[in-house]
Amino acid sequence: MAPDIAIGRVSRMDAINNRSVVEAALRKAEEKLTNLKKVYSNIGSSDFGICMKCKNEIPIGRILIRPESLFCINCAR
Ligand SMILES: [Zn+2]
């Protein structure tokens, strides 16, 4: 009986840990989606591909790799 309880406790802790991992991933995904929608709404406007902080152009390579980027590499740090 005791080992079963111990296993139950361990797996419950695992579930709690997994939950926080999943929640962190969800927050990241939501942030990425929000940024992507913003970038998408900028397509065709003069704000597209422009860093929101320093107003310099974001290199096309960065846009292709991370299309959700709102900042240039320097400002994203
Ligand atoms: Zn910048």
Which helices and strands, and how do they pair?
Blueprint lengths: L1 H41 L17 H6 L7 H4 L1
Zinc ion (ZN) binds next to helix 3.
Main beta sheet, described? none
CATH architecture: Up-down Bundle
For the record, the CATH class is Mainly Alpha
Task: Tell me the Rg in angstroms.
Answer: 20 Å
Q: So, the CATH homologous superfamily?
A: DksA, coiled-coil domain
- Figure out the total of helices: 3
* Content-based structural category: mainly alpha
Output the CATH topology: Four Helix Bundle (Hemerythrin (Met), subunit A)
Taking all residues together, what is the mean pLDDT? Answer: 90
Q: State the helicity in percent bands.
A: 55-70%
Q: Which molecules other than protein and nucleic acid are bound? A: zinc ion
H/E order of the elements?
HHH
The tally of beta strands, per DSSP, is 0
List low-pLDDT spans: none
Structure description:
This protein is mainly α and about 80 residues long. It starts with a helix and ends with a helix. The protein has helices at about 1-40, 60-65, 75. The chain has a single domain, classed as DksA, coiled-coil domain (Four Helix Bundle (Hemerythrin (Met), subunit A), Up-down Bundle), CATH 1.20.120.910. The radius of gyration is 20 Å and the shape is elongated. Zinc ion binds near residues 51, 53, 54, 72 and 75.
